[in-house]
Amino acid sequence: MLRRYTSLYWFFLIQRFKILMEYRLNFFIGLTSTIFLQAAGLLGIWVIVSQVPDLNGWTLDQVLLIYGLLTLAKSINHMFADNLWVIGWGYVRPGGFDRFLVRPINPLFHLLADRFCHDGLGNFLVGAALVIVSSINLHLVWTPLNLLYLIVVVISGGVIFIALNLITATSAFWIIESIPVTQIVFNTHEFARFPLTIYPKAIQLFLTILIPYGFASYYPATQILGRDPGLLAWLPPFVALVLAVFSYRVWLFGLKHYGGTGS
Amino acid sequence: MSIIHVQDLSKVYRIVEKDPGLAGSFKALFRPRYKDILAVDRISFTIEPGELVGYIGVNGAGKSTTIKMLTGILLPSGGAVRVLERDPYQQRVPNARDIGVVFGQRSQLWWDLPLIESLNFIQRIYEIPPASFKRRLDEFAETLELKALFGTPIRNLSLGQKMRAELAATLIHDPQVVYLDEPTIGLDLLVKERIREFIKAQNRQRNVTVILTTHDLGDIEEICQRVIMIDAGRIIYDGPLSLIKARFGKFREITLETASPIGLFALPTGAEIVQQADQRLTLRFDRTVTTASQVAAAIMNQLEVADFSLAEPDLASIVKQIYSGALHA
């Protein structure tokens, strides 16, 4: 099963790149546009932190590490699950989603695999660069164990992003145009670019329990920086797992309400 | 052993009722009024392996909703569907392996990729063994005349070529049941003819069961032995095509355009005037009494005819006649 889907994904990916090569210019525009967007976001952080050299006990490089982790997690969502954004107008409204339901593969897999989003590669590169640069400046030592931790939390963060988008994307089965719903939840990840301690308690709890983007950036960063957040450092994979299972249930529930396009 | 079993199948859509205008939309946003629409209302039928069934009805009659429940796309609101002994919604993936679906207006092929790439893709998705894939490919290269098109991106194919490609993609995994939703829509007569022949041949050679929805009575006439007619969510006729044909094919209409204004003429036997204008004449004739060529010839002897056309009896008028009890008469 896993082998079948892995090899299928690979096949989808190759097809996707064949299509992209038909439109070479778009390919490079997409890739560079995300890098520029990221540059703008970085500039914003730099402005804030350079004005306030000590952000509640956090230096610029430490904040950049948080931001780097968040960007890496976001890039996973961007690369592998971008179709969750467009499910409404791209698949449900024109009726293409019907096709996924009459093919002998999981429809969610089909939806996600249908479009690997190469724009996310730009995000990934920026995120990786941020982690590397900030860890050099911070003289972090990457032991194999630390590296493993980094990989696990980045993947967990990616799953958290995807699961939250899956929940909001499911609204497309009722209202078709799901982008605004996804946007509302997704945009709260912007808060998680900074150490959560700068926020009032309510927002901290919000980003920890309700919409747990904090586990994609702040908590793992504190662990990597040796600030020892305790149990919270080890929660990301579990939060990701619980959220993934829950979001898939929501998705299945939504499928039952799928009505297709008229008759 | 029937291959499709439908028992008291229903589907209810819940929609939000809106008053007209922007104000109405706003009101619906904050205080929605729901209305249940019964799209399919307790229908039952069974289909045997190898049957060619025409599933017809006017727009909004519940055709597509039924097909979507049969294919596992929609969850029924009530009743039961069994296709090949399975519940198509609960066992979607195994069901999908054994069925093929053409949505006439929506392609399953990858727009930007050459046809052969799309077919390779489908081979992977359906896990078709290479040997049988190759065999089917060779067969379709021949019967659907696809050989020259394999390397062409779908976006560059004509409508007729696209439908031929679509049929290949739908049948390449050797499905036992095929659902064809408007497979000849928008195609010219010659291509239609080719596609009908192909569907019949597939049925003959492989005993494929075909469920066909269409607005084109020509499709039904050429392909189907049995017709299920649905209106307002209920089945109003299920039986042989020959019976419908005998009842409704009885009268046909012929329209003639004349080169000069129509003067006096004698009405051919078995025909009556439906409409007469300056240079245009529509006649209805009884097919059991006369033929189209006899009527046309009789008129041409008297008037200078520039052009003439023969109208197929249309679905809406048949449905109307069924309601007026014509089938039970």
Using the coordinates shown, work out and report the CATH topology of the largest domain in chain B.
Rossmann fold
Uncertain stretches of chain B:
none
Q: Let me know the average pLDDT of chain A.
A: 91
| Percentage of residues assigned to helices of chain B | 25-40%
Task: Write down the oligomeric state.
Answer: heterodimer
Major sheet strand order of chain B? 5-6-7-3-8-9
The CA-CA distance between the termini of chain A, in Å, is: 35 Å
Number of strands of chain A: 0
Percent in strands of chain B: 25-35%
Strand content of chain A: under 5%
Number of domains as seen in the coordinates of chain A: 1
Helix count of chain B equals 11
| Cα shape of chain A | globular
Please give the number of β-strands of chain B. 13
Helix content of chain A: over 70%
Identify the CATH homologous superfamily of the largest domain in chain B: P-loop containing nucleotide triphosphate hydrolases
CATH architecture of the largest domain in chain B: 3-Layer(aba) Sandwich
**Largest interface summary:** A-B, 26 and 35 residues
How does the major sheet of chain B shape up?
A: 6 strands, mixed
C-alpha geometry of chain B: globular
Largest sheet of chain A: none
